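Please, does this match?
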Amino acid sequence: MAPLIDNRIDMPLDEIEVGHVFRSGGRTITETDVVNYCALTGNWIEIHSNVHYAAQTRFGERLVQGSLTYSILTGLISFGPPIQANYGINNLRYLTPVHINDTIYATCEVIGKKDKDDKFGVVTFLIKALNQHGEVCQQSEWSLLMLRKREDVEALVASSIPTEKPRAPKS
């Protein structure tokens, strides 16, 4: 049986189990993505932006920026209210080039968690970008600061949703 899409981190830290694997659906990285990322970041390195140059390299064609792949990869995993902030990225490695029109999928395995205090903790994932052939293109250890307890998540959500105010009667 193929793995199911399970890409939303909605539970607090105390309910996350080490070994759980979150999985996303696919996202094709297009020519438009690459050009827009070049313009946004100023990353006009020849391997990403110059067809003639890239054709002469060992890859034979333009490649997707590694940082663009990482940005899309982390976006394939959706956060619920327990996630408070990025905490860090360790051991980021680019293992296989990502080509324009490749489709990437995220797997995100819980490899560790630790309490910071009574309210917050840090979860660490081994996050991987797989291409349409199942090859691991990129991986890293990605840590997120999160709320530990469900009651803290519920209190945060309750305090952030407005309630409707009654209308004043017309005179």
The chain has a mean pLDDT of 95.
